[in-house]
Amino acid sequence: MNKIALPHDAFVFVGDGRKALFLRNEGDEKYANLVTERVLNGEANPPTREQGSDKPGRAFAGANSSARSAVEPTDWHEIEEHRFAERAAEALEAIVRQRAAPAVVIAAPAKTLSDLRQSLHSDVKNKVVAEIDKDFTKMPVWEIEKHIIG
Length: 150
Known about the structure:
Strand 2 and strand 3 form a beta hairpin. It contains five helices and seven strands; from the N terminus they run E-E-E-H-E-E-H-E-H-H-E-H. The protein is an alpha/beta fold. It starts with 10 loop residues before the first strand and ends with a helix.
């Protein structure tokens, strides 16, 4: 991966469906120094098997038919991760606008990247200089910095 030149006061968003880090470059393009500005944690999101209450339903083909098929169960865990990504996008938009960030880098797993792309407004999308399909949420900031800006 090519290293990214990150201007002063640019933001790096690192997130997944349960945690989001908002990092700001306190340094400059040549000597970046990421500092944590905000951490957003999702609520406890247990696996779907612990959230659902019933077995999947059954659907009938029609009134004159005895054919039945199972209905796909609701994935409550995935729904909550999607909602968390929407809340993280709102928080990212607020911080980018309030701080007049010159650039944004987003690092997240593919599903979260997709949710963020769908949720972010165009003015914030226009500031995104790189998207990284990787989960860095469990890494310390210095290691995230090493992966993103070298």
